[in-house]
Each structure stands twice: as C-alpha cells, then as structure tokens.
Amino acid sequence: MAEVMAEIILVPKRKIDIKLEAEVITPDSFAGKSADEIGNLSVWQGPETYPLSEFFEVKGSGGSSAAETLIRIKGDVFRVKRIGEGMSAGKIEIEGSAGIHLGTGMKGGEILVFGDSDSWAGMEMTGGLLHIKGNAGDHVGCAYRGKWHGMKGGRIVIDGSARHQLGGGMDGGEIFVEGNVEGFCGIRQNGGLIVVKGKALRGVGAEMAAGTIVIWGKIERFSPGFEFTGVEEGLTPGGVELTGKFKKFTGDYAISKRAKGVLYAAADANPEL
Q: Which pTM value belongs to this model?
C-alpha cells in the first residue's frame, strides 16, 4: 500500500529580487504545523527577517512527522537559497528551478527538482536522494570553502549536465550525471562514486586519494598524475550499466604515491589515452 503523506503547497506570490535564505523549507520544520504556523516561519532577505507568507501562499498542513510530510513548491525558486537544508526525511518537489545550497547537509528523504539547480547543491550531504531533472551549477556535493570533506553519503542524480568541481572532496555516496561536466570533477575525492555519461573538460580526479570516477564520454584534457593499469569490459557502477571497454587508471600520484583513486575512461571516446 502506498504511503500517504500530508502535503503542503507553496506558491510564490511574486518575483523575488534579493535572494531569500529559506532553510526553514524542510519537512522537519513543517511537520506538525498548520498552514498559518508554517507561514509564520522566518526567512531572511538581506539584513531583514520576514514571515514565509510574505513571499509564498501556503496551503495544507504538515504531517505528524517529517517522514509523513511532502512539500510541493509550485513555481520557480531560483532566487531562494538553502531549501531542504539538513532535512532528515520526507519529500520536497520543486516545479521549477531551485536556488543555491539546495539540500545542503541533507541526512535523508528526497528532493526532486523539475528544473535546474544553482551551485552547491547537495553540499556535505550524508544521506537521502537529490534528483535534479535539469542542469546543475558548480560544486555539487562539495565541501564548504576551506574544508576538505564534502558529501559523505546519499545519492545525487542529475539528468542534465553539471559545471565545475562536481563531488569535490567527497568521502562517500554516489553522484550520477547523464550529461557533461566541466573542470575538476572529483577534485580531492576521498571516497564514493561519480559516474558521468557525457564528457569532461579537464582535471578529472585531480588530487584524488580514494573513490571511483567513471567517464563514459571524452576527457578533453587528462590529469597527468594517473597511471594506466589495464582495460575492463563493461561496468555497472552503482547499478548503472555502461557498455563498451574502459581504460582503468589509478592516482592521483601527483599528490601522493599512496593514492588509491580509480578512474575509468571509455576506450572508444578516449583512444589517445
């Protein structure tokens, strides 16, 4: 029998100019609250705080727990930051694009975005599923500036492409990208799995110490610190079936001779490697 969740609908009232800090938009915060109580939760805009109802029409009420709470955002919230931050359970669905720091530190539950996501999505997440149907910005699954450890668990799925430093410093979890990535995918990776079905620009796996990266397309500029170890036929990383031959490399030995990172590059797309 399908789980029945209490549904809260948020409808943006107008176009947002100065970005909102809205870490209160989580099933954990909304659980057990009425529409009025949810509308009275505070968000920041610049140096001022406002009730959530200043910017959103609120319909419905939270479930008895975060796990029984579904938040449905009907509209574009690209200028709303930190949606789903630290959430432990439940579900958020965004019928539009989402702002910076989406799902930062999320521990469980599910976020589904039907549009694009700005940078830092899934930063330092430890569990749950973050699924972006469109494209994502820079630093998906990364660590905060000045920190070394990023995503530790959970799964990020991007149906489009992502930009720079995907999975930077990740210690665990899984990231799957259907499209392309740009520079330094998996930089300082310490664990976990990154799978990119498209191409990568440059610096893949730079300074990686452990973990696995699979690039099914062409790597435009290959990192110099990797050593070729052989060819494997077909891969199923994280249950995703990838056909063809893959060249296997280990590294990044430019940063440490004890590095245990593994990088697979599709042989047909990368004949020169």
A: 0.97
